[in-house]
Amino acid sequence: MSASSLKSETIELMGKLGVSQAALEGGDLAVHSPTNGEKIAEVKTSSAAEIKAQIEKAHEAFKVWRTVPGPRRGELVRLLGEELRASKEDLGRVVSLEAGKIPSEGLGEVQEMIDICDFAVGLSRQLYGLTIATERADHRMMETWHPLGVVGIISAFNFPVAVWSWNAALALVCGNSTVWKPSEKTPLTALACQAILDRALAKFGDAPEGLATMFVAERDGGEVMVDHEKVALVSATGSTRMGRQVGPRVAQRFGRTILELGGNNAGIVCPSADMDMAVRAIAFGAMGTAGQRCTTTRRLFVHESMYDDMVARLKKAYLGVTIGDPLKSDALVGPLIDKDAADNMNKALESAKASGGTVTGGERVDVNGDASYYYRPALVEMPEQTGPMFEETFAPILYVTKYSDFDDALEMQNAVGAGLSSCIFTLNVREAEKFLSAVGSDCGIANVNIGTSGAEIGGAFGGEKETGGGRESGSDAWKAYMRRATNTVNYGTALPLAQGVSFDIE
Ligand code: UN1
């Protein structure tokens, strides 16, 4: 495929998805495909004034949308799910083109969007509150969940479409409007999602204008949204560094946040582990998506009795894994997103070596020349948990360290700043249950005999500590997108005061 044909494929695919060629040309933000470095589009960024106007409009839309019954709001998300089913192949391909994911992962991401739509449709009839026993006669106490307002969504390049849908599907059934700022590295997938959503909105018929929109901008555009008083909730996915800035800024104006930040996810391999299962799970968790998931397995603690066997098997997997252009091959590992990612990977490997690490893999692989960054995933044997192991490097690096005592392994796993995902491989029920207990993994996701990545949408997704504490997606994550009112109703003829207080004014 010649360089220019990638651009024409982009125009053709985006056209099929409903985005005009004009929207892809002449803009001030260049979009490069990480698959070969080619410039595939130039899109227009929004000014601060445009973003503010968009938020004002979303706020007006919210005032209407909050009065629409939940199940009817669910109908819009059902239509979105239908449109996504129809566009799955094309949107999945744009994810591969723009984010460099291998085809099954690009498609998997769109499947995750379809799944959350299904979930949200059911949820639209289940925005339940509690009825609570009251201490007063002839009284009823209950909770009501109300729509919150404008939800600002900030998403990262690595899940350029799914993370938006987790937020938008829930926010919309909960009666909110949404404004989305995608990563400036992946605006095309966002333009495609907007076109898909616009088709669902057209079929829906009478949704208020400006209900769910997006804008392309660099960081300063995101700041406009973060600081805007009419954005009730900012749901931000990205680095811990970004979250450290977003969190306090939103808190300053008493807005709400859902923060889904860095992960430095670990696995523990115990003496009884099913080794075949563990190797496959760890290989996918560490090398899948070229190590660019927030749930990627980055650290591994292996019991000394299994260590040599595990390292030998992993080395084989690392040296044998196929690396290639996701648009043209069925390789399992695609490119890093850009040169910065490659520089960070190299830096971390240098630092690991300086800390006594032995590196297998990690070298650059020439797939499509100098303007794209393909690397063999790196397996790094570390004598102890030290140096770069404490940092999240968004690249395919897996550090492996030996342990002899289970409690030490647990302590090492919890000894980092982030607290997103974790896993244990064991057939020993005591180890498994301890890992899941209050003294076990301190992460938001803790798995047994499953890797750290690839969570289903049905569970709440997010993590503790420097991961930010937010939860998105399934379970009761919807509650973060609504405000709770406690209502007490007196249907009697007296006015008893709570706690037996007397206050007789006659
Ligand atoms: C992310 O990397 O930001 O659990 C999200 C997973 C995916 C989501 C990852 N379902 O790996």
UniProtKB/TrEMBL annotation:
Gene3D superfamilies: Aldehyde Dehydrogenase, Chain A, domain 1, Aldehyde Dehydrogenase, Chain A, domain 2
Molecular-function annotations in GO: aldehyde dehydrogenase (NAD+) activity
Record carries keyword NAD: yes
Catalytic activity, EC: 1.2.1.3
Residues the record marks as active site: 260
Domain Aldehyde dehydrogenase: 28-484
Keywords: NAD, Oxidoreductase
Complex and partners: Homotetramer.
Alphabetical list of PANTHER family matching this protein: ALPHA-AMINOADIPIC SEMIALDEHYDE DEHYDROGENASE (PTHR43521:SF1)
Family: Belongs to the aldehyde dehydrogenase family.
Protein name: aldehyde dehydrogenase (NAD(+))
